[in-house]
């Protein structure tokens, strides 16, 4: 079956070369609670729903030990909410600076549209975050035909497949064989595999590039 729908991730795939916006925000958020997270620790769960990203980091041995030594207790959901609040505040202040399309993205999307393909997208950002990103990316020439965040699917973000299915419903694409998912994180690839679509990984300018 011919491909009808290309679904792109945002940060690290279509915009924000090196995926720096969330990295800086996570570093500041953990520092606000007295924990020093390395860039490697921050990038490892990249692409997940942000609260799940924080839970994953707090379960990492080094960060878990930092938390228990500082607070004398296991990190709980209150800890996750505290770090997430600091993360969201930091990210919202900086997102506008990290919405520029990566080199070649605008031209590639134009060519795909000439071929008759629809351009969908999924993200680990919330609707509130995406309001900033989409507005500023559009000013610089990048605007997919649709985007869906975890907010659109009852919070069931990556690696769940539901944002992909929402794109398929939007464009009335009945078969997963007609869909290609493109992203720069393991979570992106898992999202595509769980949806049963062709899943492609981006290395150039993806989240791993930021740590090179």
Q: What is the total domain count?
A: 2
The low-confidence runs, each spanning 5 or more residues with pLDDT under 50, are none
Approximate shape: globular
Distance between the termini: 38 Å
* SSE ordering: EHHHHHHEHHEHE
Helix content: 40-55%
**What proportion strand?**
5-15%
What's the main sheet like? 4 strands, parallel
Structural class: alpha/beta
Number of helices: 9
CATH topology of the largest domain: Rossmann fold
Order of strands, widest sheet? 2-1-3-4
CATH superfamily of the largest domain: HAD superfamily/HAD-like
Topology, pairings included?
Elements: E1 5-8, H1 20-32, H2 39-43, H3 50-58, H4 61-71, H5 77-94, H6 105-114, E2 118-121, H7 127-139, H8 162-170, E3 179-183, H9 186-195, E4 198-201
Parallel strand pairs: 1-2, 1-3, 3-4
Helix pairs in contact: 1-5, 3-5
Keyword list:
single chain, 212 residues, alpha/beta, DNA polymerase, domain 1, 9 helices, 4 strands, 46% helix
Architecture overview:
The structure is a single chain. The protein is α/β, with parallel strands linked by helices and 212 residues long. Helices cover 46% and strands 8% of the residues. It contains nine helices and four strands. It has helices at 20-32, 39-43, 50-58, 61-71, 77-94, 105-114, 127-139, 162-170, 186-195; strands at residues 5-8, 118-121, 179-183, 198-201. Strands 2-1-3-4 form a four-stranded parallel β-sheet, sandwiched between helices. Helix 3 crosses helix 5 (77-94). The chain is globular, with a radius of gyration of 17 Å.
Short synopsis of the structure:
Helices cover 46% and strands 8% of the residues. It has helices at 20-32, 39-43, 50-58, 61-71, 77-94, 105-114, 127-139, 162-170, 186-195, and strands at 5-8, 118-121, 179-183, 198-201.
